[in-house]
């Protein structure tokens, strides 16, 4: 009887099991934004890793085996949900051999819970509409108020997984929200002079940002979500920009700027690259820096077009 | 929380005492001139006592308040925001239905090929896929292929995802994890057809499929992903194995190594070994060995427009027959480049000896162009030349249309 623990230990070693989970909670997220929020809330009690880079299209990520390794060691997986990750995440979770992070377990957190989700279809949808998302627009983290909700969700879940850290997480969350409130006022003030400005975007990535800062998205360079620009649609957009005197065209970093540049050249509108995620540029190191960058870039472009 | 309850408790007594005092007309502040025991004095005493009690309680409360204020700003434990109301209830009866996908594969061929007779036009396969989580421990995948010869279950297995010690097991009918290409469904291949060595040495166009058990486990070597898969199947596999006895089994093993070379580039190496009865004599077996190598380059920022993959496989089939061993070797190498958002080009070189007669060698190459109107449809043209051992050369143009109805599952990597 006494040798039983020793044998099981030997078996565990032989199987290469992690002898004891490392002190820090391992948080893996699909987007760098969630990793940044988890870092802000978790502080030095967590270690974070994001599968998608901030300059990568979050719809199209490769299910690389190296991600399986990361997921096999994760205590918490934070996902955007709304089927944003449907093209790569399910097989990664299956192959992770990590029951903790399967949907329905505490180690799986859908960050969209409680967030304001726009464009939930109210009429039947078909793929004739392009790559539409039946659960609503999945780019919701581009609204800092949703970022607050996500941070709260993460703090609650971290407290559940690491009760000893609950006070730390609560304190970090309060500090994050305090800084967010200050920043929100700053961002609003910067964009206030441009309230109601009509803009054109490449993909439909910005409804939440536009709503928060009172921009009016009136057209997309993509004829339909996921369909690349066509000559006839580009002509329509050029006419739209001229007619509505649209000052800026917003593009994501992972799209080809040739069509937007051509449109800009034809209309005098300015092309502005907005980063949808943390890590898109080296200086966008955390969630607040993301809006610092985007708001400044947008305000500067709009001011120059006045 | 404490103050109101105290006041509620004390106020009636104090008020009653005050009312009595007032009714008796005793000035509160006046000093009694005589000591005789009278009600006024008693009331005074009670009031004094009440005052003292109140003062003590107030002091205690103030102390507690001060202590609370001095403590660090410890907000309440974080709580999750409320989840939104569940989606429309009209679907509840079908809520747990599996994700259903239909993938159509239509072919048209121009040119002649005496060795391989494809019809000029053919809806060669419609794959019906059902996928769902079975319970907290398992997931189910079933793919039924409808073709010219009727319907058959192409794959159908349960994946046990909650096994101890990081094992992953699949039970059912699976495409053997032999090499890289064999386990991929037709619509995930970068070409219109299967490479020649797989057709010649690994069970034909359908590939090596087995009914049985597949178990795999990860053995990480630092940051290198390393996975060992071991499979045991029944001894029959169409075009490959034939068992005289049901206890004759086929086995397969595969070691997969993967490493990120950079953010954009990665390398995958696979070693495979399999064996099974070939039916030529009751004891005769065919041994299979394989090596696969894949190098990918995909710059993350411009992944919509650029990408490059080099892949190749080397296969060997060692077939025991009454007339001696047939050791046949085959290989292919392929390069695929993404030219634009919707355009890909590929080129493939291939060569293979035949499994049942290794003295015969076929060779060929293929060049092609793929256009994806959207994520859900694909058009492909492939020019293919095959030079068969019988000194026959076949030049063909394969045209393929693939389309997806319903759920679009994740892409295997």
Largest sheet of chain B: 16 strands, antiparallel, barrel
Number of domains of chain B: 1
CATH class of the largest domain in chain A: Alpha Beta
- In CATH, what is the class of chain B? Mainly Beta
Helix segment tally of chain B = 3
Give me the strand/helix succession of chain B.
HHEEEEEHEEEEEEEEEEE
Q: State the oligomer.
A: heterodimer
The percentage of residues in β strands of chain B lies in over 45%
Distance between the termini of chain A: 83 Å
Give me the number of helical elements of chain A: 10
Q: What is the residue-averaged pLDDT of chain B?
A: 86
Strand content of chain A: 5-15%
- Major sheet details of chain A: 4 strands, parallel
Please bin the fraction of helical residues of chain A. 40-55%
Described by the principal axes of the CA atoms, the overall outline of chain A is: globular
Distance between the termini of chain B: 61 Å
**CATH H-level name of chain B... which superfamily?**
Porin
And the CATH topology of the largest domain in chain A?
Answer: Rossmann fold
Cα Rg of chain A = 22 Å
Rg over C-alpha atoms of chain B, rounded to the nearest angstrom: 40 Å
Tell me what you see in this structure.
- The complex is a heterodimer of chains A (about 300) and B (about 425).
- Chain A has about 300 residues and is α/β, with parallel strands linked by helices.
- Helix content of chain A is about 40%, strand content about 10%.
- Chain A contains 10 helices and 8 strands.
- In chain A, strand 5, helix 7 and strand 6 (about 215-220) form a beta-alpha-beta unit.
- The longest helix of chain A is centred in the middle third of the chain and has 26 residues, at about 165-190.
- The radius of gyration of chain A is 22 Å and the shape is globular.
- Chain A starts with a helix and ends with a helix.
- By secondary structure, chain B is mostly beta strands.
- Chain B contains 3 helices and 16 strands.
- Chain B has a 16-stranded antiparallel beta barrel.
- In chain B, a hairpin with a 6-residue loop joins strand 4 (about 150-160) and strand 5.
- In chain B, helix 1 runs antiparallel to helix 2 (about 40-70).
- The interface between A and B is large, with 59 and 56 residues.
